[in-house]
Amino acid sequence: MRHYKTIDFSRYASIKIGPTLEVWVIEDEHYPQDAYIIGGANNVLLSPTPPPLMVLSKAYDYIKIENGRLVIGAATPGGKVVSFCKRHNIANFEFMAHLPGTVGGMIKMNAGLKEWEIFNYLYALKLDGDYYLKEHIPHGYRYCHLEGVVFEAHFNIEEGFQTQRLEMFRSMRSNQPKALSAGSCFKNPTGDHAGRLIEAVGLKGWRHGAVGFSAVHANFLVNYGGGTFDDAMYVISLAQQRVAETFGIVLDKEIIVLHENCQSKRDI
Ligand SMILES: Cc1cc2nc3c(=O)[nH]c(=O)nc-3n(C[C@H](O)[C@H](O)[C@H](O)COP(=O)(O)OP(=O)(O)OC[C@H]3O[C@@H](n4cnc5c(N)ncnc54)[C@H](O)[C@@H]3O)c2cc1C
What we know:
It is built from six helices and 19 strands. The chain is an alpha+beta fold and 268 residues long. A hairpin with a 2-residue loop joins strand 12 (139-140) and strand 13 (143-144).
């Protein structure tokens, strides 16, 4: 059965920019090959004409313990993982408490805070119809190389949920803006911080239209309300240009830009 749903990305995406689209809902591991998978849209910036999109259905929002491992559907939000781990006294997933997104999106981004990254505890994942062990998936700071859709992830279990870690992760957020954003705009270049470089070229707190770099944390591209894709792209390009001219450093986007020229996930 073909199944689409209408999503208004100006409400769904965390940065609240994007059109209203018909999105394919994956119910049974079959999906159109030209479509691009999204999770909670906490790390994406959509142009008015993005490629065809798809999301996992609720059937992939589950969490259980099986054969001594934590087995999580890729549509499961991080907050649900933390609650489950608290209830079952499982350690190491506390960092997800303040990390918006689904497990599928977190794996693709190797999301985390400081040294706490989702790949640290991954054992294997189900990508399309096949299972892959973590050691066969190239990954690093805010990336992993996989082509296809993650349906399920298996994690090693260690006992001992630590409530005090929740406070530690909460306080790590204290220097981040509350305004609408998609998290960090750029990856930190080796040995430096994107926020420091943006501030050094005079763009901290600077805005163009309703989009700019936060005065609270310069690496957060924020939408002050009614911001557009063009505003956001202008601000991103300006920062890249100024940082390249001043420091000779190419700022690599962490935020994923979905624009009309990317026809499939392979183009991004
Ligand atoms: C306020 C705020 C703070 C943030 N802080 C942090 C932080 O501290 N650390 C951090 O790492 N990130 C942070 N982020 C970014 C975001 O939380 C992560 O990137 C998260 O992993 C996004 O998950 P998502 O489900 O929203 O993915 P999306 O934004 O929907 O997609 C992100 C990528 O994952 C891919 N993807 C999604 N689902 C699947 C799937 N099932 N299979 C294959 N690929 C998939 C998409 O194709 C896309 O490439 C922050 C974001 C916000 C808004």
